[in-house]
Amino acid sequence: MTKSLSKRRKYAFRISKMKILAIESSCDETAAAVVENGRRVLSNAVASQIEIHRRFGGVVPEIASRNHILAIENVVRQALDEANCTEDDIDAVAVTYGAGLLGALLVGVNYAKALAYAWGKPLYAVSHVRGHIAANYIDSDLEPPYVCLLASGGHTAVLKVEDYSTVTLLGQSRDDAAGEAFDKVARVLGLPYPGGPEIQKLALQGKPVFKMPRPVFKSDEAIFFSYSGLKTFVINLVHNLEQRGEEIPKADVACSFQECAVDQLFHAAECAVGRTGMKKVAVAGGVSANALLRARFDEAEKTRGWEVHYPPLRYCTDNAAMIGAEAYFAVQSGASPAGLDLDAKATVRL
Ligand code: KG4
Ligand code: ZN
User: Fold this and answer.
1) CB 182 less than 6 A from any atom of ligand 1
2) pLDDT tens, position by position, 192-205
3) For residue 155, which atom of ligand 1 is closest to its CA?
4) Contacts of 283 (CB under 8 A, 6+ apart)
5) What CATH code is carried by the domain that includes residue 178?
6) Residue 55: inside a domain, yes or no?
């Protein structure tokens, strides 16, 4: 299998327009997309399980896997139909193999393996985090090198993207991810999952009146993030107010938290720009949809001469188009196809 796949890869490598069918199932979105040459999305089908998990206040892994099984066939069909493609038009299959929920990932990985085998197409294994970064190539002319701030529900890091295949970690969270803090703070405020967009909405009605903890690192220290102290501070604040029978000023809490969370992200990016000397900055991951975060980076573009990139909003949160984009640039950089022994991984090194 591996041998015949690599022969096909050479064929795919030569063609001028490479169409990749990509599959993503790492968390609670079953997604498939057809992407041409890494930047043009021909279709982007997403079956979201948000409504199913909402009543539990977060993603239930076992329920996620079962719903991926139910959805995947239709989602892949939809992606092919919307792209007006049949298997003959597809040059390669790509799939997220990690990081994520193991049971959820296994559904996509096994489906993609079966499809690539049945169609006789090469299969490419894609890291979810690399996919989030590559979302910035969609409908864009962004090229490495650049600094990337990645903030999602599972990761918070600042990276140096040296070329399409070489990414160096400049700093990451010592505890929780930024998105996780948004989700937990939303939950304690009685807002539905996922919390990020809800906090953003509520914060518009509030003022940043609460002083909240933020990690501080000196200019000669390693860049890091920390969200567990901030998250615990908000949870304790709300519980203390409840115990005293006082009304919770939810909008002010949301606004103060958002300011603090965004400040931390921006500060780390600012340090990374200072240390690398690179003023080209891309923001990636679900939290990159945040309007306050984008406003801070937009301001830096105007006042500090940064060149700032974000993915289009629909490609910030989990989707398969970003997996197709990453797979294309990996192929261009000489990545080898995966064999039928490809396995899902709950964690993948950044
Ligand atoms: O990248 P993503 O879809 O999934 C992971 O790979 O984790 O990120 C999901 C996270 C959630 O924590 C969600 O609350 C957060 O992104 N998020 C936001 C916004 N939209 C989504 N956080 C802040 N502001 C938003 N507008
Ligand atoms: Zn994600």
Assistant:
1) yes
2) 999 999 999 999 99
3) 7
4) 136, 148, 149, 151, 269, 293, 294, 297, 308, 309, 310
5) 3.30.420.40
6) yes
